[in-house]
Amino acid sequence: MPLVQIRGLRKNFKGNEVIKGLDFVLKKGKCTALLGPNGAGKTTTLRMLSGLMEPSGGTIDFTDAKKGEDIRKFIGYLPQFPVYYNWMTGQEFLNYAGRLAGLSKKEAKERTEELLGLVGIADAKKRPVGKYSGGMKQRLGIAQALIHRPKLIMLDEPVSALDPFGRREVLELLEKLKNETTVLFSTHILNDAEEVCDEILFLHNGEIVEAGTMDELRDRHKQSRVELQFKGQAEEFKKAFASAGYVQGIEVDGSQMKIFASDLDEATKGILKIVADGEFPITKIESSRMTLEDIFMKVVGK
Ligand SMILES: Nc1ncnc2c1ncn2[C@@H]1O[C@H](COP(=O)(O)OP(=O)(O)OP(=O)(O)O)[C@@H](O)[C@H]1O
């Protein structure tokens, strides 16, 4: 069931078209990842969806919204670089955000306590935000975006600037949020999307180059991969593997070789046999299905 339907979304900056007609839906109760390298147009897209930036063309329709209704109340947004008043405590900050979002004094107070618990910073609620860790600040930012019970929460690169501990905290929170609301988050870290999200949108040069669930993407790019690490340059061993019937492609990078094939079992068995018969100087062998990174590299043609 679509929560939001986006059709032909465009953005020009002084004649330079950076978002080139996006069509996609955000499904109710799902977590969607907006993926793409730096400059792909993720922030611009999120800013248009959140109402902070006027699109140059296209439409954004909330299925549940009445005609002419202000959609901002449906949306919670955490920008890539949120700004806090460092002297405020976490509790004060959320209360303040609640009042700005139009909650009554009582509602803001109650929702603040509820969210401090949900995002796991209740113990630090009396501490100034300036003393919070990066992960805590980001969780406070997510709580702020949820304060008015939006139907959709959008997070711009919520984990990219965090250390591994902070990253884990926020990813676990995102996992939990899926039960609360619909989530759209942008990232250039493909693993994070793979871990948390149901739906994937790949943005490249302002266009969606691939979209679907992880299973749909894997199905569409049905390939497996066997990775070999050699003692020495992989290039000199390439010929021995390239002629096998099941091999669909080979990538070589220094001492590493990636062999792509449609059938993982057949490829693994075959490659192990070649390795054993030829006594190649292998230090590592690993077989796996396509990761999001492989799929992304494939669709952007690198
Ligand atoms: N206000 C602006 N004026 C002119 N060009 C802009 C403006 N904002 C963004 N752009 C350009 O639009 C393109 C997309 O930028 P955007 O910030 O949306 O990408 P992104 O995918 O979020 O990248 P990043 O991960 O680096 O934040 C870039 O080429 C950028 O230079």
TrEMBL record:
Keywords: ATP-binding, Nucleotide-binding, Transport
A molecular function (GO) term: ATP binding
PROSITE patterns: ABC_TRANSPORTER_1, ABC_TRANSPORTER_2
Ranges for domain ABC transporter: 4-230
Keyword NADP belongs to the record: no
InterPro entries xrefs: AAA+_ATPase (IPR003593), ABC_transporter-like_ATP-bd (IPR003439), ABC_transporter-like_CS (IPR017871), DrrA1/2-like_C (IPR025302), P-loop_NTPase (IPR027417)
Pfam family, any one: ABC_tran
Keyword Isomerase: no
Gene3D superfamilies: P-loop containing nucleotide triphosphate hydrolases
Origin superkingdom: Bacteria
PANTHER family xrefs: ABC TRANSPORTER RELATED (PTHR43335:SF11), ABC TRANSPORTER, ATP-BINDING PROTEIN (PTHR43335)
Family to which the UniProt record says this protein belongs: Belongs to the ABC transporter superfamily.
Protein name per the record: ABC transporter ATP-binding protein
